[in-house]
Structures are given as structure tokens and as C-alpha cells.
Amino acid sequence: MSTLNGKIAVVAGGTRGAGRGIAIKLGEAGATVYVTGRSTRQEMSPMQRKETIEDTAKFVTDAGGHGIPIQVDHTEEKQVEGLFNRINKEQNGQLDILINDIWGGDPLTNWEKPFGEHDLQDGLQIQKQAVQSHIITSHYAVPLMKKNNKGLVIEITDGTDNTYRGNLYYSLAKISNIHLAQALAADLKNYRITSVAVTPGFLRSEAMLDLFGVTEENWQEGAKVEKHFIASETPFYIGEAIKHLALDTDVNRFTGSVLSSWQLSEIYNFTDIDGTQPHWGNYFEENVN
């Protein structure tokens, strides 16, 4: 396919970061994108960030698609059920793409405290926001895909394997996202529904730019604070990766796989917005391991 015109997508957790980049790129290909999250122009989420679902939806429309913002807390089952009931009515039961990108765990993760000292309630909240919410969302999305005997479910994670990621609660959530994708692939193999997990590299998100006191225009200066930031990538890079997966008529060959932005950039030959092809996998092996 060369276009996603007529395709219906949900980007759960599309307010900012990878979710925003993915939503915009799906819109660029012509998709109708339901952008969900907690942050609206009228109500700031506990993340206390300025980005909103309305802004993302506008960027989707400006890119060539149709962005529809709907405030949803994906840990609340009734809100998720209402979302997919609305999509069922508005789109005559059609849902082609689900992106599970709900996270919100950064302010809940204390990297300096080991298990037993880390705040237990914060750790459990990470599982609720980043794992339970994904299960709830897929539970209500997948039946629409099963009725149409096709679909693409993508779990956004961090990392490509089960290696410990430096904090038990963070690690458990991200590895769980991978297994969710693999388990869905097995359960849904008879319905032509593809399920994969996809990870970005070092994501140059809005929050990370703010943390290092830089902008996208002078982001390299952030490497003075964190040297590995020099190998970072924009949210549009993983957005390109997801767009190409959605356009691939043979995407089912990947079902059950854990994929990365850098791996997919080689498969589909795309670049980040500055024309480069960041490869966090190679960089990590050479400079971090």
C-alpha cells in the first residue's frame, strides 16, 4: 500500500513523545487517527506537561490525515469501553490499527532506589498504567478487528529482549509489553491480526529536551549533560517505522516479533527528520555495554 486512506487507527497515549510522532506519521499517510490520553487543553494530567491530545490531533490533520482527540484514562475500563463503542458506531465497526503507547511512568520511577526501597505504590502504579491499561485497551479493540478478520496491534516498549533495564518496576512493565505482543500474536493468528512490539532508541522527546535544557534546533548540546544523547532520535523516527509497518501488505511476517526503529529503518530505508539513520543498537553495543 502507498496510502492509509480509509484506515482507522487508535494511538492510545498519543499526547506526546513516541505516541505523537506515530500519530502524525499515520496521518501523513492518510489515516483517520483517534488520539487518546489524559492531557487536554482544559485539563492537565498528573504528568503536568503542556502537550495535549487536541494539539496532536491537529498535527495529524495538518499532516494529511484526520485527527480525532478523545480524553481517555486507559486504566479506567468504562472509559476504554466507551472509546471503542464510539469508534464502532462512527466507523461502522472498522478498526485497522491499534498503538498501545500508554506510559506516564517517568515521574513514578526512582532509578536511585533498589527494590524494597523504591516506593511500592509508585511501582504498582507503573504496572497499572503501562501494563494493565494495555490489556484493557486491547481487550476492547481486538473484537472489532476479529469481526473484520484483520488488524495490526503494536506494543510500544523499551528494549528488544528480557534484559534487566535498571529498575525492577520499569523493567517489568517494558518486558511485559513485549510478552503482550507475543501472546496476542499467538492468540490471534487465525484472525489475520498482526501483533508486534516496537522499541525506539534513545528517544529525543519533548520531556527529554526539557530535561537537558535544549530544543530540537540545538539538541546536540544535550550531549554535554548526557553523552549518549548524541545517538538519540526524534519521535518521528519510530513514527516512520510504524507508518511503514502499517503500509506493508505483508506485515504479518513480523507477527510475534520485537522490532526496533533502527532495524526497521534498514528494512524500509527511511530516515529521521534530519536525514540521518540513528542506530541505537550499534551505538549501545559499542559505547554503553
TrEMBL record:
Segments crossing the lipid bilayer: none
Domain of life: Bacteria
One Pfam match: adh_short
Signal peptide limits: none
Protein name: NAD(P)-dependent dehydrogenase, short-chain alcohol dehydrogenase family
